[in-house]
Amino acid sequence: MKSLSKMAWVESKLFLREPVGAFFTLIFPLMMLFIFGSIYSNVPAGPASGGPQAIGSLIPAFTAMVIGITGMMPITITMATYRENGILRRLRTTPVSPLVVLVAQVVVVFSMTSLGVILLGIAGWLVYHVQFQAHPLSLLGGFIFSCLSFFGIGFILAGIMPNARTAQIIAMVLMYPMLIFSGAAWPSELMPAAVQKVSAFMPLTYVVNLLRGLWINESWGQHTTDILVLATLLVVGVLTSIKLFRWE
Amino acid sequence: MEPIVKVERLRKTYRDTVAVDDISFEVRDGEIFGMVGPNGAGKTTTIECLEGLRKPDKGTLRVMGMDPQVNGQFLRERTGMQLQQSNLPDRMKVWEALDLYASFYPKSADWKVLLSELGLSEKRNTYFSKLSGGQKQRLFIALALLPDPQLIFLDELTTGLDPQARHAIWDLVREVRLKGKTVVLTTHYMEEAEKLCDRVAIIDHGRIVALDTPQELIHNLGAEERIVFRLKGSLPTGFEKAFSGETRVEVQGDRVVIHGKNGRKVPLVSEVVSLLSEKGIQFSDLRTEQPNLEDVFLSLTGRDMRE
């Protein structure tokens, strides 16, 4: 327990010292909010087209975006770099368990994702007066569930990538289309029907659907498909990340 | 007493290459034991088998009476390891690394004491990537000392360091031994093995070609020693024939080199000096050149270490 908390604490500091990761997790979502916020603010108010309500619907979508980014980039790159540079090799000579190494990463990335989302919520509330109507526990549960499901993808990628450079490129190649087609970066309603079909193959789509639903107070029962997909992802992620874990 | 490390007929192959071929040796409690040899001789493979990082194909290994493959966790808690290839995250600070690694051990040494003992106090808040090669190695020694181990493994500790940093590291290793700890190290610097180790195993092509104290290895070589000095004036005739036993005198301008077999009754140097003063010959810069482990390696393998 002592090693887990120490490792999570040091890894959090390392996360924030890495400018690119910190930017994409903490600053980039805010930039997106302000860009879309300024577009929507100039559109006459209406339930679907603009106004505080439309800006409000950006919050769960951008939350999914942060989860998509943190799940794929930092975990994949950190784990692949640690393995390639012999950082895991050094850890292997100590009594520390591989589980502590994995769990510390999950704790850190989850904390950073939460921090990014909290900043997003505060900015939405202060600047655009977004109203929070969701059931807090239900939304929190959905957030944690989505994070854990999605982080598995990062560990799987890290496990199968031969080196840090490939990991970084593959993570980017997978992440950008996912952000665009899943409706995380902008509302999927704005995309043509053909493109919307592609989104069914993007795991992040189900995070977007679930979080947007919970945001407007829908029940978990209305999102069985999303829950099934994410639960499968979670189980596969946990099992394969433990199985694929290699010290070197 | 049971030796702290015991290796019996260790063998390890990677696909078609035999890395370690039937190696046996023992390490005694409290000594600095060195494995020396050229790159690819099998030193790292041997030490990594002892550390439990690699699985031997054949042979029996005992470290503190335990099998590294079976009691890995026990040994990881009680031995210190410094690896040839390992790293810390670039932006991890020195104190953070020590604090983190200390938390892995049930009973760890005080890292703040280690920090000052290893001369890293000033670098406490420096990122790992900003440390010099010597400072990184000192940090790795500190990490290896965290479990307050009885036994410490150091693999190619001073490779790539400048001579000054290398000497500083040697002093640190000697201090570690003074605390009663046993050190097993590998190096491809013959000088390092000679000056630092109590006993040395010379390894070549996966086999031990010699194992003894550096002094005995050199002595057994029976090689010649050389006395070199500068002459003011000239040598009297018959000077070459004034020595007992087999000697050869070479004169190159004002520089005189006297070769003599090792292991004489009267040391060659005292014979030379008394003869020079007896004949009233003026000389300066007199020194003796002893054979070293480099010569031992050359004579055992027929190859130069650096080839």
How are the strands of the largest sheet of chain B arranged? Answer: 5-6-7-3-8-9
Number of helices of chain A: 10
Give the helix/strand class of chain B: alpha/beta
Number of self-contained structural domains of chain A: 1
Multimerization status? heterodimer
Gap between N and C termini of chain A, in Å? 24 Å
Top-tier CATH class of the largest domain in chain B: Alpha Beta
Number of strands of chain B: 13
Largest interface: A-B, 20 and 23 residues
Query: Termini distance of chain B?
Result: 40 Å
The CATH homologous superfamily of the largest domain in chain B is termed P-loop containing nucleotide triphosphate hydrolases
User: What integer value in Å does the Rg of chain B equal?
Assistant: 24 Å
- Gross geometry of chain A: globular
Number of helices of chain B: 10
Explain this structure:
The complex is a heterodimer of chains A (248) and B (307). Chain A has 248 residues and is an all-alpha fold. Chain A has ten helices and no strands. In chain A, α3 packs antiparallel against α5, α3 (51-84) packs antiparallel against α9 (203-215) and α9 crosses α10 (224-244). Chain A is globular. Chain A starts with a helix and ends with a helix. Chain B is of the alpha/beta class. Helix content of chain B is 31%, strand content 29%. Chain B is built from ten helices and 13 strands. Chain B has helices spanning 43-50, 72-78, 94-102, 111-117, 133-145, 163-178, 190-196, 214-221, 268-278, 293-301; strands at residues 5-14, 17-27, 32-36, 58-63, 79-82, 151-155, 182-187, 199-204, 207-212, 224-232, 247-252, 255-261, 282-289. Chain B starts with a strand and ends in a 6-residue tail after the last helix. At the A-B interface, α1 and α4 of A face α2 and α3 of B.
